[in-house]
Amino acid sequence: MRKRSLHTGSIVSAILLFEITAFAILAIGSSPFDLRIPAIAVGAIGMFLFQYGTITAFFPGCDRPSLLIVNFLAAIGLIMQTRINAEYAIRQLLWMGIGMVGMVVALVGMRRLTFWRKTRIPFIALSLVLLAATLVFGSEQYGATNWIKLGGFTVQPSEFVKIMTVFVLASLLDRGKSVPKMLLALFHVGACMLLLLMAKDLGAVLLIAGTAIVMLYAATGSKLLLGLSFGTGAVGAAAAYKLFSHVRTRVAVWRNPWADYHGSGYQIVQGLIGIASGGLFGLGLTRGAPGAIPVVHADYIFAAICQEFGLIFGLIVIGFYLVFVVRGVLIAMDSRNSFDALVAVGCATLICLQSFIIIAGVCKLLPLTGITMPFASYGGSSLLSCYLILGVLQGIAIKNNDIYREEFEDVYDRLEADEDDEWEDDE
Question: Residue 17's CB: how many other CB atoms inside 10 A?
Fold first, then answer.
């Protein structure tokens, strides 16, 4: 226990040193001096210490590595938001606080409440209502109709539908996998994907489809079903390409963005130029030109990171996402029931696919879909949903630890009773 405390303590110190140094560079480099930067730094560091200290103190069975990884990724995102526009950083800091509260609620709910298996029908209905409402009442941003305005805020319902889909699939694929349950799962995933395609939210389509395939294979282990799922996905992708013009447009821009450099290909080309200009070690914080990349604070935050911190640092960021996914899989493997295991697999898959899709899109390995980079990109709905996913994983990890401790105490009590009996026999 002492070694673990020393190890995590050094990681916390490293994150703090990184944040303090980065914010100091930003403050010194601002002209005139921007008082918002030290205020953001104090808020970010204080929030990190309070969150990590509170979670580890009240929930000693939490998964510390994933918690530290998220805090580091969130710190990188907040530093880059401050670098791009301090107003973005202030809003991001506010949403981080809301997200952390949501994480604790999800953590406690996942650990204490037992009705999650029974939520599939309400979650199916709510998911379809939210996506349909987005089509009717939603507003278009960056080519997709996936936002609903509520007062002074805009909400992206698909960010929460993807989490509900994990619970729906985990409930339907848990224990007995009957034909009616499988058909209901297929209906839910298909209906959500169709509504998202109509809203031109291609990133959410890929997320839900990929997560459904992974969870189906995790639940059944059937290579036949896995092959059929990929085949169905390929047929669906081909049909979407034929039926929806915006899908064809995205693919055409991806194949040759230089053909329309001053139009639809401008963002992709500028992002690639930004990554290339940073080289292996980066131009240095405040020395790049991230503002030349459209929507750099959201979709293209990875390009800004690579430009100023370098490609090697970008690969390290990707490595942190991979470690987070591995921690999620380990939490699933430690689960004492298949429902918790499937939920953990689904949550880990969401973060894995979301980070892969957006980073691959920025690097022109896949058509750009417009989703956010988990925990780093600007966006309230995205940040809140990512923290809810973290809370669900932490709740399952704590539950696993609670069960392990109870089992260990039972074994210890039995051993102690056996020793007492042997002692009495000897007497």
Answer: 10
pLDDT, one tens digit per residue, over 19-47 is: 999 999 999 988 888 999 999 999 999 99
pTM > 0.85: yes or no: yes
- Among 160, 173, 155, 156, smallest CA distance to 127 is for 160
Listed as own residue / partner, the contacts of 280-285 with beta carbons closer than 8 Å and 24 or more positions apart are: 280/310, 280/311, 280/312, 281/310, 281/312, 282/306, 282/307, 282/308, 282/309, 282/310, 282/311, 282/313, 283/307, 283/308, 284/308, 285/22, 285/25, 285/26, 285/29, 285/79, 285/83, 285/309
Burial of residue 288 (number of CB atoms within 10 Å: 0-12, 13-18, 19+):
buried
CB-CB neighbours of 102 under 10 Å: 20
User: Which residues face 150 on adjacent strands?
Assistant: 153
Rounded to whole angstroms, the Cα distance separating 408 from 219 reads 28
pLDDT tens string 372-420: 999 999 988 999 999 999 999 999 999 998 877 766 665 545 555 555 5
